[in-house]
Amino acid sequence: MRKNVLILWILICAPIIVAALVVEAGQEVHAAAGPRASLAPPVGQMMPMRGMMQRMMPDLVPPGTEPENLPAPASRGARLVVQYCWQCHNLPSPSMHAAAEWPQIAERMYVRAERMSGMMGIEVPTPADEDTLVSYLKTYAMKSVPADSLPAPASPGIALFKDFCAQCHALPDPRSHTASAWPAVVQKMETNMQLMHKRVMTAAQRKQIRDYLEQNAKSP
Ligand code: HEC
Ligand code: HEC
Fold it and tell me: What is the pTM of this model?
């Protein structure tokens, strides 16, 4: 019974969220702030909410990360990512951003959760959980390198690497994978570019980027 009421409620709210999304450029979500976590329905009942958000914003966080393939899946940090970060979009992998990027992004997400907590029943992390979340995300973050410390700065592929590989996250460190591991990673990133509507490499560009990564990779 309660589930039907929730679904009805979500149907009523849908136009309001859509309107909010349209009004605020940059996909800012506005909703009334209100009572917090204690009123949130159990995770199972948030599924319609996530499905709805996901349909509205399919290109935020790519699919493919499941609770069991998060790093250290039994840790408190991983469980909090599942509990809080899976309410509005696909499960984000901590490897999606560099450690330096996560605190600011997490902060933005807490604000979004707070705005949507009352009307939408979104659960907001407690301050202690916020700290655990950020330290978990940073611990398993992507390994990045500042552009001016990249290896082999005179390589022909470096400009393309900088151009294409920093569209979604900080510049990945070429030394974070072995030469034999890079092709599969680049392949996965190409899928991400398509899913997330970013510029996609031509075959020639992909080859130059792969050559750069493989020539400067971690030794096996
Ligand atoms: C209340 C809904 C909501 C919750 C809860 C939420 N997000 Fe988001 N998330 C969004 C929205 C809306 C966007 C798109 C706008 C933006 O990027 O700010 C987004 C985008 C993202 C992106 C893609 C943008 C980028 O900068 O790469 C990442 C990564 C992300 N969220 C991670 C997280 C993490 C980690 C958590 C848990 C700490 C979380 N989200 C919780 C709503 C949410
Ligand atoms: C369209 C967005 C996007 C672009 C562009 C992008 N990535 Fe990623 N990257 C992601 C996402 C999302 C993740 C998190 C893992 C996942 O879900 O695929 C990630 C994670 C990573 C990681 C850490 C995970 C791992 O497997 O080690 C590396 C390294 C990486 N990207 C390298 C690259 C390289 C190299 C390029 C350029 C060829 C690139 N990325 C371009 C979205 C992108």
Answer: 0.84
